[in-house]
Amino acid sequence: MILKATLLRSARVWPLKRNLSSDLKGVVGLEVHVQIASKSKLFSSAPTAPGPANSQVAPFDAAIPGTLPVLNRQCVEAAVKTALALNCREINQIMRFDRKHYFYADMPAGFQITQQFHPVARKGLLTCQIQRHPTAKPEAIRCRVHQIQLEQDSGKSIHDENANVSLIDLNRAGVGLLEIVFKPDLSSGEDAAALVKELVAIVRALGVSTGRMEEGAVRVDANVSVHRPGTPLGTRTEIKNMNSVRSVRHAIDYEIKRQIRSVESGIPVANVTMTFDTESDKTVVMRDKEITQDYRFFPEPNIPSVDVKQMGINVDRLRNTLPPLPGEQREDLMQRLGLSFRAAMVITSEENFFEFFSEVLLILDSKHAGDAEYVLTCDVLGYLNEKSLSLYQTEVTAQNFAKLILLKATRKVNRQRCSNIIRLMLEDGTDPEEILEKNNWSLIADTTLISRLCDEAISLYPKECNKLRQGKERAANKMLAHVRRATDSRADMVLVKKILLERIHAANALRDEIQIGR
């Protein structure tokens, strides 16, 4: 947080008008860094689990002279699985590593071991779907993968302005990263956000990464430029280290609009590196890139060429044992259970939702899938977003969730109380039947009581009764609300509406008989 404040003080911020109309179009290429969920680091035996600062560091990670790298087979296998999931046509049986030289305090060796020239894979394709508004049909977005490479992560620099010191934590140094470089096939922040969301869902499904962007497990860089279709691409800017889908969307859209305004004002776009300020929703300059940095790549002398097969990694076997990917899961939910695209997208994109939903449906009959989906994608997701939590951080179990859905399906609890109950279940894992009994939230289905309350409502709202007799069904709302208030929202409103209409029709029939008798 202190580092961000330092950057923002010296940064230039461009004001921007919304809704610019222009024939200039955005061109976006992404570089996504995915932290591999391996037990140990890419080239050392140090654990990757969280710990106190500098507690998870092997001598190699700290660049102690004389220490040598030992390649982690689990990381190579994760890279090959990702390449298969991203439809890479070239998966190299022989891969090599290179040194990329640059000097940061959190990179103690003075270089990063990466794969610039002989990566894991090339020529892939990621296809995702996006629904641009609720009534629109989903459309496909296709983005080519240039290459996938393995590399080391850096440590963390922590700047303390009050003490005027910079601190280094090397726990993250040497953790395995997958850098996935996409071709500039995208044109907006919305498309880029959809692509990142799909990629995160894929690496989670594969078990390659946790995909938790808020923890730095996925970080996105975007190269953004604008041009008129059919003309050369414009000068690009690079937006670094975006760690949420929202940031990806807003940063890229803002930067495209900023560049369009610059070009149309006759101001050249500068080749700069930028960051995204989440408080102002604006991109700000970090540093100038006009002078190309020479990383002086050369082959890593301490790691010989890696033969994937000799490491015991069978590409064909991995291809045949890939789990169902989010696109397949989504199609199954829509075709087999009749879920909407929006619901299927939420279930396959949010962490642990698909596994949880599948477990719930093993307990329930599939006819309850709609109710289960609604509570999960509305009530549960709303609670998680409000509390900034993931499902795995709550106490709810599939067994108790299924119980709640059955209570709702058998009309023992109404929609409002169902929402109240699931929040309590998420907080402490309590059985829904216990919550129902403790709070006295069971639905009232006493026909005698409901009939009396309906008669009260009819006498209170004679004008609405007349409108209802004329076929204006919305006129019943005030009378239904009266019964709801009188029962503290516990009345079975389906039964209430049925009895209310019966009482009104009975009163009509009686009135007609009296008129005929006269």
Automatic annotation (TrEMBL):
Q: Name one Pfam family in it.
A: GatB_N
Q: Which reaction does it catalyse?
A: L-glutamyl-tRNA(Gln) + L-glutamine + ATP + H2O = L-glutaminyl-tRNA(Gln) + L-glutamate + ADP + phosphate + H(+)
Instruction: Name the enzyme's class.
Output: ligase
Localization per Swiss-Prot or TrEMBL: Mitochondrion
Q: Which domain of life is it from?
A: Eukaryota
Q: Which SUPFAM superfamilies match?
A: GatB/YqeY motif, Glutamine synthetase/guanido kinase
List cellular component terms (GO).
Answer: glutamyl-tRNA(Gln) amidotransferase complex; mitochondrion
Q: Which InterPro entries match?
A: Asn/Gln-tRNA_amidoTrfase_suB/E (IPR017959), Asn/Gln-tRNA_Trfase_suB/E_cat (IPR006075), Asn/Gln_amidotransferase (IPR018027), Asn/Gln_tRNA_amidoTrase-B-like (IPR003789), GatB (IPR004413), GatB_Yqey_C_2 (IPR023168), Gln_synth/guanido_kin_cat_dom (IPR014746)
What GO molecular function annotations does the UniProt record carry, in alphabetical order?
ATP binding; glutaminyl-tRNA synthase (glutamine-hydrolyzing) activity
What EC number is given for this enzyme?
6.3.5.-
| GO biological processes | glutaminyl-tRNAGln biosynthesis via transamidation; mitochondrial translation
Record's function text: Allows the formation of correctly charged Gln-tRNA(Gln) through the transamidation of misacylated Glu-tRNA(Gln) in the mitochondria. The reaction takes place in the presence of glutamine and ATP through an activated gamma-phospho-Glu-tRNA(Gln).
Which family, according to the similarity comment? Belongs to the GatB/GatE family. GatB subfamily.
Q: What is this protein called?
A: Glutamyl-tRNA(Gln) amidotransferase subunit B, mitochondrial
Q: Which organism is it from?
A: Galendromus occidentalis
* Lineage, opening ranks: Eukaryota, Metazoa, Ecdysozoa, Arthropoda, Chelicerata
